[in-house]
Amino acid sequence: MTHGGRMRRVNEAVREVLSDTLPELKDPRIGFVTVTAVDTTPDLRHATVHVSVLGSERKRAAALAGLEAAHGVLQRRLARELRLKRTPQLAFEYDPSAERAVRMAQLIDELAPDE
To answer: Which of these CATH numbers, 3.30.300.20, 3.40.190.10, 3.40.50.1980, 3.40.50.2300, describes 3-111?
Structure first.
């Protein structure tokens, strides 16, 4: 298996564990958050977690702050569920792709003739 294939599997495993863990967090700032992707460095020291947040700019900022506050809990869960040489340090980043997709759908609906 290639190095890229292994990293793809690691990224997907981290994404799955985080996606399963987020609903269990008790922080009210973390509302409708979806983990869209994870990019882990090859040395497994760092992972950038791309998240989509439903809501306003204020809710987005609050959700990212809540995720940063919960990163210790999330890292412990990763260490327990995944058998990795190292548990990556998590950094959360907003992913605007879902928001762009909604906007594109709105534009298409505006341009499409009514049936």
So the answer is: 3.30.300.20
Whole-model pTM: value is 0.82
* All structural domains of the chain with their residue ranges: 3-111
Positive or negative CA dihedral for 9, 96, 94, 81?
Answer: negative
Structure tokens at 16: 């799955």
Give DSSP secondary structure letters for 2-45.
-HHHHHHHHHHHHHHHHHHHGGG---TT--SEEEEEEEE-TTSS
**Encoded tokens for 30:** 């973390």
Along the 115 residues of the chain, how does pLDDT read in single tens digits? Answer: 456 788 999 999 999 999 999 999 999 999 889 999 999 999 999 999 999 988 888 999 999 999 999 999 999 999 999 988 889 999 999 998 877 777 888 888 888 766 5
Token pair for 43: 């040395």
